[in-house]
Amino acid sequence: xxxxxxxxxxxxxxxxxxxxxxxxxxxxxxxxxxxxxxxxxxxxxxxxxxxxxxxxxxxxxxxxxxxxxxxxxxxxxxxxxxxxxxxxxxxxxxxxxxxxxxxxxxxxxxxxxxxxxxxxxxxxxxxxxxxxxxxxxxxxxxxxxxxxxxxxxxxxxxxxxxxxxxxxxxxxxxxxxxxxxxxxxxxxxxxxxxxxxxxxxxxxxxxxxxxxxxxxxxxxxxxxxxxxx
Length: 229
Known about the structure:
This protein folds into two domains: about 1-95, Elongation Factor Tu (Ef-tu), domain 3; about 105-229, Rossmann fold, CATH 3.40.50.80. About 20% of the residues lie in helices and about 35% in strands. Strand 11 (about 195-200), helix 5 (about 205-215) and strand 12 (about 225-229) form a beta-alpha-beta unit. By secondary structure, it is α/β, with parallel strands linked by helices.
């Protein structure tokens, strides 16, 4: 199967939002939170990398990715060199980092491009009478609050959705939360222990938050995570 690039937009320094299509399919089926594996030959080597889908399932063969250009990386620089119409190989969507059923009120904790699967989930499930969701999103700089306007719009539209961005290196005019996501877990959870928690981001954050949650009394079944290095 192939993934053909339709377009890309730079949404932060070094970060792009890609729109691909799978030409062999009429409809790409996946569950929010799943990933696709893309592969191509780079410098005479076949390289494969997995990327979380950033869009909600729809009635087309298109899907969206949120990718950070890793300097010296094996594959991301290659993807950043693609032009509209170029294609790479692709495996069908896979993965178990999906919302537990039945849905419960949930806390979503992301850092960096770990926001991608949560964008997919929220676009798919948020509606007038959906469960409550809090998105705790940590980045270094305000310029890297990926999809900020979208999440702020969702928070205005759905009272049961809270968008909590936090910066570790805020500018002088930043009036929001600061510090790492770990510093805001207790406030986000409150006294509740009947919520599900989803974590996505770099390995140190995910491992640290898991330990904090276990110390707070959460069962491991309530915590789903996906981490990368």
